[in-house]
Write a structure and sequence with these properties.
The complex is a heterodimer of chains A (115) and B (114).
Chain A: E1 3-5, E2 10-14, E3 19-21, E4 24-26, E5 33-39, E6 46-52, E7 59-61, E8 64-69, E9 74-79, E10 88-95, E11 103-105, E12 109-114
Chain B: E1 4-7, E2 10-13, E3 19-25, E4 31-37, E5 43-51, E6 54-57, E7 64-66, E8 76-78, E9 87-94, E10 104-105, E11 109-113
Parallel strand pairs in B: 2-11
Antiparallel strand pairs in B: 1-3, 3-8, 4-5, 4-9, 5-6, 7-8, 9-10, 9-11
The chains are: A mainly beta (115), B mainly beta (114).
Chain lengths: 115, 114
């Protein structure tokens, strides 16, 4: 069965600090997708990034970067120079390619950025 | 603007009543999903539909029902058989073309049973 673990329940940082959110996944599939979503206080999930299992290149988008390592089944998310607006719940998710492309979510990490 | 709308934003229900949550999308997406979110937990899949007039149970379908009569609409009914319905409900959709696999979410409906 597929499983996603986000061991950090809550992280608090001061503005401008760098912060890394951990994500570890389990799957027997050789082809799969990994995602990060952001849930601000309004509640709507915002898609941040998708990565497929054949692409282990790290990705950077502005202050956001993602590190995918198949050897450790991890897909970690780093925010550089955090800002108060980054405060949210962040979810890591895993999808297979079976019918429906269902997502399996981790429990989420609450990030609090203080000014 | 294209997007996913859910209504109402807040919903209160008395025990023993059925209630229907609305989800509409104008993105021309084929697939639609319903998730439930409880405090401190991730999202869990209730039902999903890949095409009109077809839907499948997710991991926690008991006490819920859905219909998919139109491509743009995927309403969820929370029945009296659902023992603990108080939660935040999120609807999502996805195109099934072009290799796109990410789902896009609506703003959610917060259901409280009184």
């Amino acid at each position: 069965a597929q499983k996603v673990t986000q061991a950090q329940t809550e992280i608090s940082v001061v503005e401008k600090e760098d912060v890394t959110l951990d994500c570890v996944y389990e799957t027997r599939d050789t082809t799969y997708y990994l995602f990060w979503y952001k849930q601000p206080p309004s509640g709507e999930l915002v898609f941040l990034i998708r990565r497929n299992s054949f692409d282990e290149q790290n990705e950077i988008s502005g202050r956001y970067s993602w590190n995918f390592q198949k050897s450790t089944s991890s897909f970690n998310f780093t925010i550089t120079a955090s800002q108060v607006v980054d405060s949210a719940v962040y979810f890591c998710a895993l999808s297979d390619l079976t019918y429906g492309n269902k997502l399996v979510f981790g429990a989420g990490t609450i990030l609090r950025v203080k000014s | 603007d294209g997007g996913i709308t859910q209504s109402p934003k807040y919903l209160f229900r008395k025990e023993g009543q059925n209630v229907t949550l609305s989800c509409e999308q104008n993105l021309n997406h084929d697939a639609m999903y319903w998730y439930r979110q409880d405090p401190g937990q991730g999202l869990r899949l209730i039902y999903y539909s890949q095409i009109v007039n077809d839907f499948q149970k997710g991991d926690i379908a008991e006490g819920y029902s859905v219909s998919r009569e139109k491509k743009e609409s995927f309403p969820l009914t929370v029945t009296s058989a659902q023992k603990n319905p108080t939660a935040f409900y999120l609807c999502a959709s996805r195109t099934t073309t072009g290799g796109v696999v990410e789902q896009f979410f609506g703003p959610g409906t917060r259901l409280t049973v009184l």
